[in-house]
Specification:
The protein has 857 residues and is an alpha/beta fold. It has five domains: 88 residues; 122 residues, OB fold (Dihydrolipoamide Acetyltransferase, E2P) (Beta Barrel), CATH 2.40.50; 262 residues, no CATH class; 35 residues, no CATH class; 239 residues, Ribonuclease Z/Hydroxyacylglutathione hydrolase-like (Metallo-beta-lactamase, Chain A).
Length: 857
């Protein structure tokens, strides 16, 4: 137990570093190192002085155990700090951001193949000029005349060395409350810069066997290329590819929605259960053959026990499978546990399952301190911990008669279902904290999905992959691929039905940290062995975390959230009982947009189940790009727009989804349909779909909402046709609370600003900078007329438009306004509460030591 506590302390020390806004100074590190050295010396001296007593069975004193845990805690903190400092030193200088470098790079990972784009991690071998980090993420766009075709790219494989001109930038990702930290994700992968290819790169050589990692990635490439012809046109071909080599890039967003709502996402990625099952089947096969093989008249089992050979073979198979899977945290955890179990079995060392799990968790963190940032770490180790604790509940009935096979099978199924329900309930607090949604149908879906995918689909797919790369085995690979897809498709039929149920999942708001700790304490209490009184009441402690809702403003007050959506617009306004969304962000390619990536998760984290009003200022892609996703995910009472919203939705839904490998080329209509080209399904339209026109107003909870633009009368007087351009026709919404006001401006320009000033536009406390802070807006008269205390510009870092313009920033600041930029500050929250107006930014409130500040602020 002493060693397990020390390992847990080491993990806690490593995790504490990742919560720091900045790393400790060199002086603090030196003092910590001195303290650690003194403490370790004292502990060692204690062992030496007490050696004779210890050899006679005496126990170490309690303070020695406390000192050991303190030493492990400081050691984990110090090791993680030093490694983080070393990684931070490998960075791009701020003055070089956006510059073009001439690089010689080696492709280090399996390239992601999107329509019109290739992306991969590259090792920088040389750069001119110097200063590029050693690992960067490269994005290679197809030539304009390629039209997104695959032939617009040469064959890109891991190990190739290319010479290319690349525009280099520091890692950046949107920062929103309770959302995925993309910059932290890149930092954990040791990616210290991103780059976009310019011109035509030149292939220098091929280092396909430059190292074990390159060789594994090269093997994944060959398997993918061999499997693609057999997967052509299959509805779930992308899932089979994910199960064979861990390539999830081509799984459609609609399928991920089904997996999340049904709770089987862990089965689509290569998880610990897949590795264990494959290793177990391989080990059992070797055990069976080894006992029957003979050499020179003697059985091989007589020379080396079959159990030992089977254990080593299972370990080798697990290692190879983990390499093909990309060596993620669940794969690493499973391999380390299998390695420890195999080692203990070979050397005949008795060791408990809990100690194996604890040691594996410590080794994973020691090798990679940033594994703690991955949700897979907590879910993977948490699920195994629950299984180890709850597996002891099952027992055998005491009786004289041996139960029948049917009864034993029924008892086995009952115990498996009970364990699955226990795991699902135990992981609820972690799932709620990470994803703000928990699946209600997960136990039922996993009851049949785990055996089908783990025991049938995955082994068949791996056999198909092996046959696909073997010469002359193409027909067999095609048959196995068809069989695996047929099994998967049959399994997905009831899963899709379950996911479409209104009660399939429960949205959970992001609550305070102590609610999560309370829920985890309840899980620990409920997992105690039989005999503990009222053990079942531990599950009741999950309810506060699942039912908690954030505090809403009082009547007359409002809260405005300007989300960080890059070079786009999305603003959430909340009153006491109502929620309004102004614009829906941008579309980010064939499979994603800001609606499903940022807006819907944010609304779910805030405990907002529906929208009372949705305003789409104009039809530009950076303001209406996430409209379909928002309408699919949430019920909307009414919409306002400056264009034909229903026609726009029909046009967007009619576009066929572009698949990188052609999975849905011949099948499917909609998310899961069949027959015809794959298209985005049309969502349920709101009951009221209105046009925004000057003078239209309504009141909610003591807050008045009024449209100030478009104004057909003003356009007629100026001699210009209303809606000459989309920007000129943007909806402008004024929010007036009991004490403060806000002005949401869309993409209007100086001409529309002048019309608003002439119409009597006055002071506003908060103004969203028109057109992302463009130099063609925010005119002097508009600034002087509004006189705000705070101005917010939603813009992307290093955007090609140069938004917001420096002269615009200066103009607002000289007028006395605090200027906030989403690319510098992240999401900005403005609260009008109790007569006070407060503003905070996500990058300042939740800063981490790896956070990139784009340009300042």
């Amino acid at each position: 137990m002493r060693g397990c506590l020390a390992v847990l302390a080491f993990i806690a020390g490593s995790g504490a570093v990742h919560g720091l806004p900045m790393l400790p100074s060199a002086g603090a590190v030196r003092w910590l190192l001195m303290f650690l050295a003194v403490l370790a010396t004292l502990l060692l001296a204690c062992i030496v002085l007490m050696w004779r007593r210890l050899t006679h069975g005496a126990n170490l004193p309690g303070w020695w155990n406390a000192g050991l845990c303190a030493c492990a805690l400081c050691g984990g903190f110090l090791l993680a700090s030093l490694r983080a400092e070393y990684r931070l030193a490998d960075k791009l200088d701020a003055a070089d951001a956006g510059q073009v470098f001439r690089l010689d790079v080696r492709v280090a990972t399996l390239p992601r193949q999107d329509a019109g784009r290739r992306a991969f991690v590259a090792e920088v071998l040389s750069s001119r000029p110097e200063g590029v980090p050693r690992r960067i993420q490269v994005s290679w766009l197809a030539p304009p005349d390629a039209g997104g075709r695959a032939d617009g790219f040469p064959a890109i494989m891991p190990g190739q060395v290319w010479r290319m001109a690349v525009t280099i930038k520091s890692p950046w990702g949107p920062r929103n409350p309770h959302a995925f930290d993309y910059e932290g994700h890149l930092f954990a992968q040791d990616i210290r810069a991103t780059g976009t290819v310019r011109g035509s790169p030149k292939l220098l050589r091929d280092d396909g066997w430059a190292g074990l990692s390159i060789a594994a990635q090269r093997a994944r490439h060959y398997i993918r290329e061999a499997l693609l012809p057999h997967l052509e046109g299959m509805r779930y071909g992308a899932v089979l590819l994910a199960l064979s080599i861990g390539d999830q890039a081509s799984v459609p967003a609609s399928d991920w929605r089904v997996f999340n709502r049904s709770g089987i996402t862990h089965l689509v990625s290569i998880s610990g259960s897949h590795v264990t099952m494959v290793a177990a089947m391989g080990g059992a096969s070797v055990f069976w053959f080894w006992r029957r093989l003979r050499w020179r008249g003697a059985g091989l089992a007589e020379r080396c026990p079959a159990q030992v050979v089977a254990a080593l073979a299972a370990l080798l198979i697990a290692w190879l499978y983990c390499l093909l899977a990309g060596w993620g945290v669940p794969a690493r955890r499973t391999f380390l546990m299998l390695a420890l179990v195999a080692l203990a079995y070979v050397i005949r060392l008795p060791v408990s399952s809990f100690r194996v799990l604890c040691l594996a968790a410590g080794v994973v963190v020691a090798l990679d301190p940033w594994a703690l940032l991955a949700s897979g770490y907590w879910l993977s180790f948490g699920a195994v911990m629950v299984l180890l604790a709850s597996a002891r509940w099952a027992g055998d009935a005491v009786g004289l008669r041996r139960p029948s096979r049917l009864r034993r099978l029924g008892r086995l199924l009952w115990n498996a279902a009970r364990l699955q329900c226990t795991v699902s309930l135990a992981l609820l607090p972690v799932l709620a904290m990470l994803f703000h949604e928990v699946s209600i149908v997960s136990p039922l879906a996993n009851a049949y999905a785990i055996p089908v995918i783990g025991l049938a689909v995955t082994p068949v797919t791996l056999l198909a992959a092996a046959c696909a790369i073997a010469p002359g085995m193409g027909p067999l690979a095609a048959g196995l691929t068809w069989l695996g897809h047929a099994l998967l498709q049959a399994m997905m039929a009831p899963t899709v039905w379950l996911a479409d149920l209104p009660v399939a999942s429960l949205p959970v708001a992001a609550g305070p940290w102590w609610l999560t700790l309370l829920a985890l304490g309840g899980v620990a209490f409920a997992a105690l062995p039989y005999g503990m009184p009222l053990r079942w009441t531990g599950w009741l402690l999950l309810l506060p975390a699942l039912l908690w809702r954030p505090e809403r403003p009082q009547p007359g007050d409002w809260t405005l959230h300007a989300l960080d959506v890059g070079q786009a617009g999305a603003i959430v306004v909340r009153t006491a009982q109502h929620t309004l969304l102004f614009d829906t962000g941008a579309r980010r390619g064939a499979h994603g947009d800001d609606g499903n990536r940022i807006i819907v998760p944010y609304l779910r984290a805030q405990g907002i189940p529906a929208l009372d009003a949705l305003v789409v200022s104009h039809a530009d892609g950076d303001h209406a790009g996430g409209l379909l996703s928002v309408l699919h995910a949430l019920p909307v009472a009414r919409t306002y727009s400056s264009f034909d919203l229903a026609g726009h939705l029909r046009k967007e839904a009619s576009r066929a989804r572009v698949q990188p490998y052609g999975w849905l080329r011949d099948e499917g209509t909609g998310a899961h349909g069949h027959g015809g080209p794959a298209r985005e399904p049309l969502p349920v339209l709101p009951a009221e779909m209105l046009s925004c026109v000057r003078g239209m107003r309504w009141e909610a909870d003591g807050v008045t909402f009024e449209f100030l633009w478009p104004d057909p009368a003003a356009s007629a007087m100026s001699g210009r046709k209303a809606g000459t351009t989309r920007n000129e026709n943007s909806c402008v919404l004024r929010i007036q609370g009991a004490r403060h006001s806000a002005l949401l401006t869309g993409d209007i320009g100086a001409r529309q600003e002048a019309a608003l000033v002439r119409a009597g536009l006055g002071h506003n406390d908060v103004v969203i900078a028109p057109h992302h802070g463009s130099s063609k807006s925010s005119s002097v008269q508009f600034v002087q007329a509004t006189r705000p205390a705070h101005v917010i510009a939603q813009a992307g870092p290093w955007n090609r438009h140069g938004h917001p313009g420096m002269e615009v920033m200066t103009r607002w600041q000289q007028a006395g306004a605090a200027f906030w930029r989403s690319d510098w500050h992240g999401a900005i929250t403005v609260e009008s509460r109790d007569g006070a107006l407060t503003v905070r930014s996500e990058r300042q409130a939740a800063r981490r030591y790896w956070t990139t500040v784009a340009g300042g602020g």
